[in-house]
Specification:
Residues 405-480 form the B5 domain. The chain has 813 residues and is of the alpha+beta class. It has 6 domains: 2-33 and 165-186, no CATH class; 43-154, OB fold (Dihydrolipoamide Acetyltransferase, E2P); 199-400, Phenylalanyl-trna Synthetase, Chain B, domain 3 (Phenylalanyl-tRNA Synthetase, Chain B, domain 3), CATH 3.50.40.10; 410-471, Phenylalanyl-tRNA Synthetase, Chain B, domain 1 (2-Layer Sandwich), CATH 3.30.56; 494-614 and 624-706, 2-Layer Sandwich (BirA Bifunctional Protein, domain 2); 725-808, Ferrodoxin-fold anticodon-binding domain (Alpha-Beta Plaits), CATH 3.30.70. It is 27% helix and 28% strand. It is elongated and about 125 Å long.
């Protein structure tokens, strides 16, 4: 929010800060109102002054140029060449002297123009950045003081602050509100604007009727009828005030409502009374499905949850957010109905978010407007409208306020303040601070009873008052002291430590960590995941029901994610189209679903995605599917968790394969007999639809299941000093036979001498039948206590071959 120091000066003396605004900025920041930027507009007009043309002659060497002698102060005369012709001797003009830098980084220097020295420039408003078009140099009134800096003369010598106001300090979203804060911080006198509108004997209630139906969302509504206004441009003082805080002038009526909002923090709206059907204002909820067109011409469909200001036939305003085009003030308007109200913050915030409408009015109502300030804001706006647009303000205004908002008293004693801040608080200073804040303070026993003002929504309990004392007295007074360490520090959260270990391991495998929102768009996620039954079959969700948000930010964040896979796919899609042709990403996060009994389920997941292969001069692209990279990383993780009993399973039922994955390159992971996730190659049709021209693979695991039983104990054994014996076998087997089942059988039959078994060759070629494959397997045998004898070796290998013959009908090739 922008604040003008010249505007602030109307309510509190800030003269001392014009020369050193950093002092005020530092005090406000220490007080909780961060100043993000300070702009001194006078610097834009440095070396630009009011001049007086003493003499105008023709340029001796150019017919289209004039040569002027210009005074910029007593005894100071400059010779300036000018290309414009709309000036004459005796005119007051704007002069940019050498050293000035005009918009566009145009520096003014002494120069020779067609052989004649020129020491400056006569300026147009366009050249100063104050107008889009200009017919010539600007001619000032005859009484413009010669030599005076133009910024000071034209009112552009203002300093503005860009403030970052926290949501709990809505009372500072105006110049008077900030003046109140400055008065508190510096102990200065606060000057309130004089509000005395002149009203006639006419009755507002007879001209425009009022009915507040949704009084639970609109506790207070005020309104006044003003007759015979003349809509037109605003006077320069009003335009400059609004421009100083970044607002554009529209017309005098609308400008007044904006002025009062920036002055007192009370948003207002002016209706063209001729457009109010039935001469009646109704405050009620919208009708579901009805259409509404905002002042800027945006068409929206109402849901029925919005609070609206209506006439007898239709909505004319979204309460607290934006007015309607069907009742806005225009040049033809002669009579207006002016409203100022207090709407519940929740109502304005919900309407603003659901329709994506951001306005200054909605910003303030969403954070909270002082309910006791509505009538004051109405009267102030009435006073200014009469001043800039004329007309007759009717008396007997509407003021619907059946249940005035009342703040509860807060009990506190000075010892509480001292105990919480760690230093001795002063009773007199505490009372002074509270009164400066607008609180009513009464002595109550050994403490005080404090009644906060209605504009301070954040003062509700004793700790809020302690914080105000600390803020106004200065946080630097709070002493620094380390607490006594009497207890052992609490242990790190087990899940956190496991997640960190997992993250470090996966990063060591070449993956980079991604962080995505837990909110996703339901349509997009459903289109990607398809049926959630396939995820459930892989052991990833307890239910196929998603959790919908009651008040989503937008349709792309309307449900809680049921899987991490969709987020990583979007990451890959974005990266690939940004030029990253190969990448490895992983994410550790939570997925959410609804249980069968209606409760909520939240469990931790690990998801990984790989796409493309990095190639350089020394490496060539491999033919191995990327899914095996993920498989290797998962197995490294399982090994680090000391999980030895796991199996990869390719389901026979194709319905268990997610639609976004390849049917033939998919496997579920079973750990100790329970499914904990899947790996697979992304479906080529999906990649093609998204114009991803490299292979990609994805994995997702349930970390809650993997972490069960952690830490698993490690069995530490000494290295045997006896030699290992290797034996190699080649078997011809059907292609449909899973080698993993064969290895499992070998481990069982070869115990206890078998220490390892692995595949070292696979052959499928012309010398092999079409449905057969040759698999070469190596086994390692070892006795921990003695040297193996031939009889032991033959006995063990015999058991292995016999078991393979019996269970799979396999013979050595």
């Amino acid at each position: 929010m922008k604040i003008s120091l010249k505007w602030l000066q109307d309510y509190v003396d800030v003269t001392e800060f014009f020369q050193n605004p950093d002092v005020l900025a530092e005090a406000l920041t220490r007080g909780g109102l961060e100043v993000e930027e300070i702009t001194n507009r006078a610097k834009d007009f440095h070396h630009v002054v009011v001049g007086h043309i003493l003499e105008k002659d023709k340029h001796p060497n150019a017919d289209k140029l004039s040569l002027c002698r210009v005074s910029t102060g007593e005894g100071v005369v400059h010779q300036i060449v000018c290309g414009a012709q709309n000036h004459k001797t005796g005119d007051r003009v704007i002069v940019a002297l050498p050293g000035a830098v005009l918009p566009g980084n145009f520096a003014i220097k002494k120069a020779a123009v067609r052989g004649v020295d020129s020491a400056g420039m006569l300026c147009s408003l366009k050249e100063l950045g104050l107008a889009k078009e200009s017919d010539g140099i600007a001619i000032l009134p005859a009484d413009a003081p010669v030599g005076k800096p133009y910024a000071e003369y034209a009112g552009y010598d203002d300093i503005t602050f860009e403030l970052k106001v926290t949501p709990n300090r809505a009372d500072c979203l105006s110049h008077f509100g900030l003046a109140r804060e400055v008065a508190c911080l510096f102990g200065k006198e606060l000057k309130s604007p004089v509000v005395e509108p002149k009203t006639s004997s006419g009755s507002t209630k007879k001209e425009i009727a009022l009915e507040v139906k949704a009084f639970d969302m609109c506790p207070r509504y005020t309104g006044r009828y003003i007759k015979g206004v003349k809509v037109g441009p605003s006077p320069s003082w009003l335009v400059k005030r609004l421009e100083s805080v970044g607002m554009n002038s529209i017309n005098n009526i609308v400008d007044v409502t904006n002025y009062v909002m920036m002055e007192l923090g009370q948003p207002l709206h002016a209706f063209n009374s001729a457009d109010i059907g039935g001469k009646k204002i109704i405050v009620d909820k919208a009708v579901k499905g009805e259409k509404f067109t905002t002042l800027d011409g945006t068409d929206i469909t109402l849901t029925g949850e919005e609070l609206t200001i209506r006439d007898a036939n239709r909505p004319v305003c979204l309460a607290g957010v934006v007015g309607g085009k069907n009742s806005g003030v225009s040049e033809a308007t002669t009579n207006v109905f002016l409203e100022a109200a207090y709407f519940l913050p929740m109502s304005a915030r919900k309407t603003s978010r659901s329709h994506g409408i951001d306005t200054d009015s909605g910003y303030r109502f969403s954070r909270g407007v002082d309910p006791d300030g509505a009538l004051r804001g109405l009267n102030r706006a009435t006073q200014l409208i009469l001043q800039v647009a004329g007309g007759e303000a009717f008396g007997d205004p509407h003021d619907f306020y059946p249940n005035p908002v009342k703040k509860a008293k807060v009990s506190i004693d000075i010892q509480t303040v001292s105990d919480r801040l760690g230093y001795e608080a002063e009773e007199l200073k505490f009372v002074d601070f509270m009164k400066r804040l607008g609180c009513q303070v009464e002595k109550s026993g050994n403490g005080f009873s404090v009644l906060p003002p209605t504009f301070r929504f954040d003062l509700e309990q004793d700790m809020d008052l302690v914080e105000e004392y600390a803020r106004l007295n200065g946080y630097e007074h709070i002493p620094e002291a380390l607490p006594e360490f009497k207890e052992m520090p609490s242990a790190h959260d087990k899940a956190f430590m496991l997640n960190r270990t997992t993250s470090e391991l996966v990063r060591a495998e070449g993956f980079q960590q991604a962080f995505n929102f837990a909110f996703v768009g339901s349509k997009a996620e459903k289109a990607f995941l398809g049926s959630l039954e396939s995820l459930k079959a892989a052991g990833l969700t307890a239910s196929a029901k998603e959790i919908r948000l009651m008040n989503p930010l937008n349709e792309e964040m309307d449900v809680m994610r049921t899987s991490l896979s969709f987020g990583l796919f979007k990451n890959m899609n974005y990266n690939f189209h940004a030029g990253n042709m190969a990448g490895r990403l992983f994410e550790i996060g939570n997925a959410f679903s609804i249980k069968e009994d209606g409760g909520y389920l939240e469990n931790s997941r690990l998801a990984m995605i790989a796409w493309g292969r990095s190639e350089n001069l020394w490496t060539k692209s491999l033919e191995t599917p990327l899914v095996f990279e993920l498989k290797a990383t998962v197995e490294v993780l399982l090994k680090s968790l000391n999980i030895g009993s796991y199996t990869w399973v390719m389901p026979a039922n194709k319905a268990e394969v997610p639609g976004f994955l390849h049917q033939g390159q998919f496997a579920q992971l079973l750990v100790e007999g329970k499914k904990v996730g899947f790996i697979g190659t992304l479906h080529p049709v999906l990649l093609d639809d998204n114009k991803i021209r490299v292979p990609a693979a994805l994995a997702e695991l349930d970390l809650d299941q993997l972490y069960k039983g952690q830490p698993r104990p490690y069995r530490i054994q000494s290295i045997s000093k006896f030699q290992v014996v290797e034996r190699d076998f080649a078997f011809v087997m059907p292609k449909s036979l899973k080698v993993g089942d064969v290895l499992k059988d070998i481990r069982k039959a070869g115990a206890p001498l078998l220490v390892n078994v692995d595949v070292f060759d696979l052959y499928e070629g012309e010398k092999m039948e079409a449905d057969k494959k040759s698999v070469a397997i190596r086994i390692w045998l070892q006795d921990k206590n003695a040297t193996l004898q031939d009889a032991q070796i033959n006995e063990t290998t015999g058991k292995v071959l016999e078991s393979l013959k019996k269970n799979f009908n396999l013979s050595v090739r």
